[in-house]
Specification:
By secondary structure, the protein is mainly α. Helices cover 69% and strands 0% of the residues. The longest helix is centred in the middle third of the chain and has 22 residues, at 21-42. The chain is rod-shaped and about 75 Å long.
């Protein structure tokens, strides 16, 4: 009786979950938020609303970690 051995390429092709474009989109938004807060700290605009919106970019760090954890769990 001959055993069937799957090659690594065949295993990767039968993964239960494919790449999620929604998670990639969230990761991109998180990166943009982190960049926004760094820009707002270096170059304050003086307008309260713009400084508030760009200053809220710290949430991007939390979102990035959460989305990355979800991606690793789905692998």
């Amino acid at each position: 009786m001959q055993q069937l051995v799957r090659k690594p390429a065949e295993r990767a092709a039968t993964a239960p979950f494919g790449r999620s474009h929604a998670l990639d989109f969230l990761r991109g938004l998180a990166i943009a938020g982190v960049m926004a807060i760094h820009v707002s700290q270096s170059f304050p605009s003086g307008l309260r609303i713009i400084d508030f919106v760009f200053g809220s970019g710290w949430v991007g760090v939390n979102v990035f970690y959460f989305v990355s954890a979800m991606t690793m769990c789905l692998m």
